């Protein structure tokens, strides 16, 4: 009979995510991973050459999950559905969300990480950046400049949701039930493309964003609305 392995790569990746999410990335060691997984430390080294390799794999798994949840909405300029998708993903994967929050936007690796792993990390970051850049291009006609669009989208799609989620995620609590209502209020107040659509129909909004004839002549009110939140 074939003897099945008791532990696999995913066992140790998940263990690393749990340690990082609850104790911080600095607490992740090969010994801590083995202890969390209930495995001999040799089993971890049998599959991963270093702590950085486990963390790289963990970051790729979590980041790819987040990107798959939001990127299609970003690329189509569907900003409110993108926020909803981010909230839903965080509720479904709180440990992954907390792990990414602990990483503060960067893969938690050291200089010794092998080149192929670095390339995979770079590719994943690039895919996320390209999706965001597409959102900027789709929404730019409603703002006074590309810089304004970038700042506004970064706030609406990332900064505001993360500020709302951080207290709950950092303390291991459930995300507040009213998070969506509060974020929607700020989204509707700040996003001129959503105000112009004046509907929740995603297809209508997408056609509006794609139609040059529907672009506003000016959008001078956008910076004023954005600055009023400070």
TrEMBL record:
GO MF assignments: DNA-binding transcription factor activity; transcription cis-regulatory region binding
Pfam families: TetR_N
Keyword Ion transport: no
Keywords: DNA-binding, Transcription, Transcription regulation
Domain of life according to the entry: Bacteria
HTH tetR-type domain boundaries: 6-66
DNA-binding residues (ranges): 29-48
Official protein name in the record: TetR/AcrR family transcriptional regulator
Organism whose genome encodes this protein: Aquabacterium soli
Lineage, opening ranks: Bacteria, Pseudomonadati, Pseudomonadota, Betaproteobacteria, Burkholderiales
